[in-house]
Amino acid sequence: MAETQDKWRDVISKMEGLGLKLKLHLEQEKDSTDKSSKPGDTKAALDELGAKLQDAFNSMGSAAKDPAVKTDVKDIGASLKDAMMQTFSAVGAHVDDVVKKTSSTDSSEDSDESEASTPQDSVADEEE
Q: N or C: which end of the chain has fewer CB within 10 A?
């Protein structure tokens, strides 16, 4: 169980690192296109919103080209795969244990029932 938790902590750590890099790209785009507008100016506010959306898409494009970001995304994918495999393995082992317990309980009940029945019980069951 501890190994599974460690794998998920690794995924979280790598995602946090990627988030910081993406934030840096967004801030760099914002700094290069930052323009002030008058308060209360609706058109200026809409223009600013459009510019911020464009900045966000531009920073995503820049981030996608950044080798460090590419490496982080690959590392996150590998870590996520490892964490999921470990989780499924642990769940599978747990399910296997439950099935074995259930099977052993069922088979012991079946043997108890077969030992308790007599030939007369079988004949009586057939007549009904």
A: C
